[in-house]
Amino acid sequence: AMTQSDMEKRVWDMKRELGTRLFMPGHYYQKEEVIQFADETGDSLKLAKTGAANKEAEYIVFCGVHFMAETADILSEDHQTVLLPDLRAGCSMADMAEITQLEKAWENLQGTFADTITPLTYVNSTAAIKAFCGRHEGATLTSSNAGTMLQWAFRRKERILFLPDQHLGRNTAYDMGIPLEEMAVWDPIRQELDCDGDPEKVRMILWKGHCSVHEKFTMDNVRQVRKDDPEAHIIVHPECMFDVVQASDAAGSTNKIIDMIQKAPAGSTWVVGTEMNLVNRLMQEETDKKVRSLNPNMCPCLTMNRIDLPHLLWSLESILSAEPHYRIEVDEQTTREATTALQRMLQQ
Ligand code: 13P
Ligand code: SF4
Q1: Which terminus in the chain has less CB density within 10 A, N or C?
Q2: Which positions make up the signal peptide (predicted)?
Q3: C-alpha 140 to ligand 1 mean position (Å)
Q4: What residue numbers bound the domain in which 115 lies?
């Protein structure tokens, strides 16, 4: 069997051999054994932009999850092939919104609210959901531009249907001054709107989805930190639950989390509510600060972690043997409509 260092050497060799024929973006949540090879690292927005800008590479090997590879394929040129090193690297949140559920939800909501809704989807969604948003005058967003995109949508129509992450939707809308009473949750299983008050007042319809990693950061975790270490700064990803975000000192995309901690004064303590690999990296790199996870159990994203060194090696070998494996290919019509939704975001 190959040792870790054999495998690493082989990947460096293949990268050298492939040169600019290969482009490898890597999300911040990737393991060190993988991200060390990335040509570009970033949050979802940065990776979507740099992926779209690369017109040269013949192969894009995406070190991230399935929806990111789909976005890369949607924004890529015809001559470019996108590969995902392990097809099981999905995203449980993206899987919480299926296109058939959305079609039904839309029909139902049009019955109540007529033509007053703009659909917005977090990029953590399937290409089919993005295409739906493209067809219905909606757009995509990421955690970096969620506020801007909500404002964009509210300039067009009075309501938003926000998919698939209820927490990002609620946290972003609340930050813009929309009270919780003007938000309701659409349950895609029961096909029902959970709404306490008058539906006429609802401006924000939140799809009932969540990230199973970020839901593991709880109010108990926050209380424990406040008790043990009142000087510590708590910073979380906006995929965390509303109460947790409210009780934290800051919230933001992975890029913002990194940026704030890098710029923080030496000696300060940062307790972070996001995926384990990023927290570990910050602990190792920001040695003049104290960094730790908000949940002592660390919270890995199991699907992000499916991309490992053996799968990366295997993916590059498949290219060199002219039999590229695990190609991610979005059909033409979906690509066209999803591009519309993505472009509305990238133009903001
Ligand atoms: P960002 O890197 O855009 O903040 O997204 C986090 C995430 O959960 C990606 O799946
Ligand atoms: Fe999906 Fe959550 Fe993993 Fe991000 S951290 S890829 S949202 S399951």
Answers
A1: N
A2: none
A3: 14
A4: 94-207
